[in-house]
Amino acid sequence: MRILETEHLTREFGGVIAVNDVDFHVEKGLVTGLIGPNGAGKTTLFNQITGMDRPTSGRIVFDGVDITGLPAWKISRMGIARTFQNIRLYKDLTVVENVMMGLHFKVGSDPFRHRFSQAIRSYVFASRENREVYAKAMDWLSFFEIDEHAQDFAGSLPYGKQRELEIARALAADPKLLFLDEPAAGMNPAETAHLMTVVDKIRKLGVTVVLIEHDMKLVMNICDSITVLNFGMKIAEGTPNEIKHDKGVIEAYLGREEEED
Amino acid sequence: MTVLSGGLSPSGSLLFISEKDVSTISLYMQYIVNGLTLGAIYSLIALGYTMVYGILKFINFAHGDILMVGAFIGLLIYNALTGGEAAAPGAWTIIAFVIATLVSMVACGLLGMLIERIAYKPLRNANRLAPLLSAIGVSFILSNGAAWIFGTKSRRFPYPFENEPIHIGSITITPHQIVIVAVSVLMMILLASFVSRTRMGKAMRAASLDQPTSMLMGINVNKVISLTFALGSALAAVGGILASFDFRVYPSMGTMTGLKAFVAAVIGGIGNIQGAMLGGILLGILEAVGAPLLHIPNGMKDTVAFAVLIIVLLVKPDGILGKNEREKV
Amino acid sequence: MLNFFQLILIYAGIYAIMAIGQNCITGYTGMLSLCHAGFFCIGSYATAIMCKTFGLSFWLSLPVAAIATGLIGLLIGIPTLRLKGDYLCIATLGLGEIIRNIATNLNPVGYNSIPRASLFGYQFASRNKVAFIILIWAFVLIFYVLFQQLAHSRLGRAMIAVREDEVAAQSNGINVTKYKISSFVLGAAVGGIAGCLQTAYTLTVQPGSYTFMVSVMVLCTVVLGGMGNAKAVILGAFIIQLISYLPQLTGLTNVIPAQAKQIIYGLLLVVMMLCRPQGILGRDRFRYGDPRTRREKLHDFFIRPAGKAREARHENP
User: Fold this and answer.
1) Best residue in C262, C273, C278 to probe B by mutation, most B CBs within 10 Å?
2) How close is the nearest chain B Cα to the Cα of A47, in Å?
3) Is B140 in contact with C85 (Cβ distance < 8 A)?
């Protein structure tokens, strides 16, 4: 079953077409990789889907609902979480507070109550709610084995841990779909190996994962399906094995053979 | 012309120009001339806002007060050299005026550099609010310091030359208006050629495009920023002196003029040097023509000016020649 | 002398209330707004009009002032809060001046001999300063508790998220616009209440007393104490008022120029930014999941400094 589909998605920036007529889809429960050379439009595609930016044309359907052009916070509440290429943590807040922010709309939200009365309840019963949010946040931190850093400032964590914290914050919102934008960028081999186990753990939680990554070893190892972008266009999709032997993909990464002569 | 007069005509006629229309047209021509003068001053001051914003992406709140300091220094030196109001305009008063302007430019240039060095430079890597708060502080120090030293009384800047109005048709132009426009244009030409021709000017443009890269190219960005503040402040000093022909000299003169010049910079596209010149002229003409056209009472002029400021910020924050900048996710 | 101390206490209270409002806007949500003088003005005018023209009692005009200021805050907040940093600062500066200009045009002479406030038959007369000190500081305490609760609730955390990183806040499902506007409206309403209290004390309203200078003083109060820290802001209000009444306190009214306090405020802003941008007391660090009981916390707070207690706990758990 497809949890996410884009139809003819296009984004132009004043004449430059960053994403060009892309039909991208994600199967529920799988790990999908999005690869392509630098500037291929991968992050732009992420931004369209997560509502950080509006597409010029095309449609985005998530779980049967058209989410094209919705604001980012609404999309996030519908169950799409994300991390950022250049980590965007609340650096001056503590690690546990970061995850508590991720739980913002999870705790104290009751679909049968009006939003305003919810806000009043959150205000009046803040300390009770805080205990609940704190406990949940700590659960996520122990899931990622960073609970001993709970009271440290997020900015003081080592790089790899910051990436994991960002994933923890995104997961705290209990998303159906998680977008990871270059999670292994800047990681050393040991950290990358750890990341692989983390992604595996996330998959076991039943969360569908989409990741942009340049580390081919990582992508080929953990992805069930891969989509390749180049110059804003989708040039291939398939299993890792198919992609490895796809002529178009090899050309995009290595150039044509004629050119090399 | 017929259509234009029709639009403005109190008699409401579109087809022929009555005598009344002729006087209306010339009245508005007169407003435009006044507006050009005003606009030339705004442009000079707007340049300082725009150059600093171009490089540091920060609005120098104290810029308006620098123009006030410039006007005071100019006035003091001019009075010391000529004996003030009593002096009959002549060759000596003109020379004294030139000297006063040059000294004021140098002094304000140094003041601008000093302010940057003390109050802004240490905050270059702090959060965005820090330099802004610091700038508000500097602005407060300058305007109240001037009020302390010079008193709050407003003073007239005597004309260093004969100011017999010249009549061209029914339009009246005073020599001081010609001086304002001529000096402003001269300054802008000098600045434009400095920025486009000299090594330092090129370094300035490079630094405003991409600071880290220009550092890697061996450009001393600190020096460039100092120079930017010096140039902007020197231009503000000229602007302040020219403005004081019309507005007198007093400690809070920089606030309103500075804010309007800031609007001019935004209209033209902040960070863009040609934009600041264009925006200044545009705003000057708009103000001179708009106020009588819309019958804005004197008490409401500032309100309208602020309202225009807010509307410009909301509707056209990128200005006419500016480029759209978005935060990259 | 005692008289001036009482005056300082009264005005420190009024500025503390205003600064709590400004702190909500600037300290929690990170928006540099410069129109608190405008909110102060609206609150004062609303109280004056309600008390004088409509004959309402002080206690009824208080909520009217708060609501009126909040509504105007909403009205101007919706369009302007889209602006960021420097632009927001200048737009709100303009708004503050527009409010003052409109107030001046509305009634250039202001209002005089506004009826006194009374409580359980007691009349608050301006000469009885002690009564005002109690009244105003009761309000300071109320707003301190209310905003402390806000800061440590889900809503306050969302505001802080907006301050720290708007993009990340959106990705966490936080409606950035909603929180910006709410925080602005709350801050404005509190500013309006400060205006209301000031009117109850002076019983006159003059348009000349709501200049840009007031906004800068309030901002200075917040910066001096520590942005995002309600306790610090109250401390800041004290210091600002001490500076304001320095010539009278030292008896040097003839020596110290009238501009001295403004120059000191300017210097304070610059020096604080350079040397201690987090303010005297720094940011309020609320420790979530603190294992200490309330009694232990009180003990640590009063008997020994909290930081040391925490370190001690870390060393021997």
Assistant:
1) C273
2) 8
3) no
* H helical segments located in chain C: 2-22, 36-48, 58-80, 85-106, 129-151, 154-164, 166-171, 176-202, 212-225, 230-244, 246-250, 260-275, 294-303, 306-315
How far is the CA of A19 from the CAs of A11, A84, A85, C103, in angstroms? 5, 18, 18, 53
- The secondary structure of C9-26, three-state, reads HHHHHHHHHHHHHHHHHH
User: How far is residue A181's CA from residue C167's CA, in Å, rounded to a whole number?
Assistant: 15
Instruction: Tell me the nearest-neighbour CA distance from C303 into chain B, angstroms.
Output: 35
- Angle at alpha carbon of residue C59, lines to C54 and C63, rounded to 5°: 85
- Decide: helix, strand or coil at residue C81: coil
Q: Distance between alpha carbon C191 and the CA centroid of its chain, in Å? A: 6
Burial string for A20-35 (b: 16+ CB within 10 Å, else e) reads bebebebeeeebbbbb
DSSP-derived secondary structure for A130-189: HHHHHHHHHHHHHHTT-GGGTTSBGGGS-HHHHHHHHHHHHHHT--SEEEEESTTTT--H
Q: How close C292 comes to chain B (CA, Å)?
A: 34
Residue of C nearest to A172 (CA): C172
**Residue B2 domain-assigned?**
no
CB pairs under 8 A between A and C: 102
Helix residue ranges per DSSP H, B151-252:
175-197, 199-209, 211-216, 221-247
The per-residue pLDDT for B5 is 35
For residue B201, give how far its alpha carbon lies from the nearest alpha carbon of chain A (Å): 29
Instruction: For C49-90, write each residue's pLDDT tens digit.
Output: 888 888 788 888 899 999 999 999 999 999 888 888 788 888
Q: What is the pTM of this model?
A: 0.87
Tokens representing residue B136 in the block: 């508000």
Give the CA angle between residues B294, B295, B299 to the nearest 5°.
120
Closest residue in A to B326 (Cα–Cα):
A53
State the Cα–Cα distance between residues C73 and C76, nearest whole angstrom.
Answer: 5
What is the domain count for chain B? 1
Q: Which residues of B touch A14 (CB under 8 A)?
A: 324
Write out the residue range of the structural domain in which residue A16 sits.
Answer: 2-260
Structure tokens at B75: 């006035």
pLDDT higher than threshold 60 for residue C306 = no
How many whole angstroms separate alpha carbon A129 and alpha carbon A118?
12
Here the tokens at position A149 are 């850093």
Tokens representing B302 are 């500032």
Give the integer Cα–Cα distance in Å for C272 and B297.
42
Question: Shortest CB distance from C277 goes to which of B130, B137, B310?
Answer: B130
Residue type, B26: S
Q: Which residues of A touch C175 (CB under 8 A)?
A: 71, 73
**Alpha carbon distances (Å) from C266 to B70, C252, C262:** 20, 21, 6
Q: Is residue B329 situated within a structural domain? A: no
pLDDT for B196-251, tens place per residue?
888 888 888 888 888 888 888 888 888 889 999 999 999 999 999 998 888 888 88
Beta carbons of B119 and B137 less than 8 angstroms apart: yes
What is the location of CATH 1.10.3470 in chain C? 2-280
Task: Please count the structural domains in chain A.
Answer: 1
Rounded to whole angstroms, the Cα distance separating C63 from C56 reads 11
Q: For domain C2-280, is the CATH number 3.30.70?
A: no
| Nearest Cα residue in chain A from C168 | A88
